[in-house]
From TrEMBL:
It holds the Pfam family UDPGT. Residues 13-73 are annotated as: Disordered. Belongs to the UDP-glycosyltransferase family. This is 7-deoxyloganetin glucosyltransferase. It comes from Sesamum angustifolium. GO terms for molecular function: quercetin 3-O-glucosyltransferase activity; quercetin 7-O-glucosyltransferase activity. InterPro entries: UDP_glucos_trans (IPR002213). Keywords: Glycosyltransferase, Transferase. Residues 20-29 have a biased composition (Polar residues). It comes from the Eukaryota.
Length: 469
């Protein structure tokens, strides 16, 4: 969703005219995956920036994944394998079509996802500038860079599966400036393999190497949050523009512009959800959401549910119908009845609005970067359960670097879940994290403030120095 937020920020600055690439396909796919559980209300439309659609869109099957396969986007290896093979040609054709159109001006700059550098190749072929937008943290990007270095040095793939038990994942990566307090287990989960032909590792390495050819790189973060890592990254990359958190910047767009009508929520915010939150005391609710794509085993969901029940605390749980592998009916018997007075389970919600509600006192999350940024913007402490990709790096930063989170063990147990929920909502550590979280909230607000915030100014600089160059 971060890419959708960046688009109106650029569009709001004349004289730009934007064609929104594959956004329609992405939204349709996400919307499909977020079908509500029984009793919830689906959003009946896809967000639009204005009543006039963009002049051209990419073919819906550009990713090369079978549209009939409901789990296609769950397979990262399949996506990494198909992207280079199926994306370059149609994107090249789209650019050529736009440049030969009598209706729209020619393309002068491409803004692409940082791990979709086929767009960079096509742009270079047509002598068009290309900016790569990374929706990760700076520490997440540095983890990608380290992943490529580990491949070059022969450290990963590991020689055999003993790395899982011999302490290899606990080894520090203190030779990497900016990641001195990190261990191998905090780096991208892609490195945890013994397969020398691992398609994801090869893809990551190629994408990182291609980033050096971009006109500029955008990172969805703000200077005060990751200054040390940003200083490390600066010599490695083209000009870096830190622009985040994005939502507060979008909120500043004048109501007179077309983008003011844009609705970024894929589901209507359920009135029941906010009525329920309004009935709870301040900082008394743990909000539970594991994003759009992470999946759990039935036993993991049962441990989470039992932990929430045993905490005796209020909770709002966003429970996707496809959150559990192979079986959606896995909540413990009597769980709903036992927690009905202090728990609410819904299919989806408007997350940034929920996190800003006074009754929400903590966020149990998978540590996806968009969720972390929304939580920081709201000033809530985190209860972290990282699962894949850059999430362990985000978790490490949240808990150790920024002091606003606690981590649940990978082997989920109800007793620990219940204990940590209580600690976040009413413990001494929770109070300290809340205080620190409010300090980071203030820093995020300063970064996005008009006209002197660092992220606001970086957006202006990006437009003048790169997009209009």
């Amino acid at each position: 969703m971060a890419t959708l937020l960046l688009s109106p920020l650029i569009r709001d600055r004349p004289p730009f005219q934007i064609s929104d690439g594959a956004s329609t396909r992405n939204l349709q796919e996400t919307s499909r995956r977020l079908r509500p559980i029984p009793g919830t209300k689906p959003h009946n439309r896809i967000p639009q920036a204005s009543k006039t659609p963009p002049p051209q869109r990419l073919p819906h099957n550009i990713h090369g994944l079978p549209p009939s396969d409901e789990d296609a986007t769950q397979s990262v290896p399949a996506l990494c394998e198909s992207m280079p093979r199926n994306s370059l040609v149609p994107f090249r054709e789209l650019l050529a079509k736009l440049n030969n159109s009598a209706v729209v001006p020619p393309v002068t700059c491409v803004v692409s996802d940082g791990v979709m550098t086929f767009a960079l190749q096509a742009a270079h072929e047509m002598n068009v500038r290309c900016v790569l937008f990374w929706t990760f943290a700076a520490c997440g990007f540095l983890s990608f860079k380290l992943c490529a270095d580990l491949i070059d040095s022969g450290i990963t793939p590991f020689k055999d599966s003993s790395y899982l038990t011999d302490g290899s994942l606990e080894a520090p990566v203190d030779w990497v400036p900016g990641l001195e307090n990190f261990m191998f287990k905090h780096i991208l989960t892609f490195i945890q393999t013994t397969d020398p032909n691992n398609v994801v590792l090869s893809y990551v390495k190629g994408e990182i190497e291609a980033n050096s050819k971009a006109s500029a790189v955008i990172l969805h973060t703000f200077d005060a949050l990751e200054r040390r890592v940003l200083d490390v990254l600066s010599p490695m990359l083209p000009p870096i523009y830190t622009i985040g958190p994005l939502q507060p910047l979008v909120d500043q767009i004048s109501e007179k512009t077309a983008v003011s009508s844009m609705d970024f929520s894929l589901w209507k915010a359920e009135d029941e959800c906010f009525e329920w939150l309004n009935s709870k005391e301040q900082n008394s609710v743990i909000y539970v959401n594991f994003g759009s794509y992470e999946v759990f085993t039935p036993s993991e969901i049962q441990e989470l549910a039992l932990g929430l029940a045993e905490s005796k605390k209020n909770f709002l749980w966003i429970l996707r119908p496809d959150l559990v592998k192979g079986n959606s009916g896995v909540l413990p018997p009597d769980f709903v009845a036992e927690t009905k007075d202090r728990g609410l389970i819904v299919g989806w919600c408007q997350q940034e609005k929920v996190l800003s509600h006074p009754s929400v006192g903590g966020f149990l999350t998978h540590c996806g970067w968009n969720s972390i940024m929304e939580g920081i913007t709201a000033g809530v402490p985190f209860l972290c359960l990282p699962r894949s990709t850059d999430q362990p790096a985000n978790c490490k930063s949240v808990c150790s670097e920024w002091g606003i989170g606690l981590e649940i063990s990978k082997n989920i147990k109800k007793d620990e879940v219940g204990m940590l929920v209580k600690e976040v909502l009413e413990g001494e550590k929770g109070r300290k994290m809340k205080k620190r979280g409010m300090e980071w909230k203030e820093q995020a607000a300063k970064a996005t403030a008009c006209p002197h915030g660092s992220s606001f100014q970086n957006l202006e600089r990006l437009v003048k120095e790169v997009l209009l160059k």
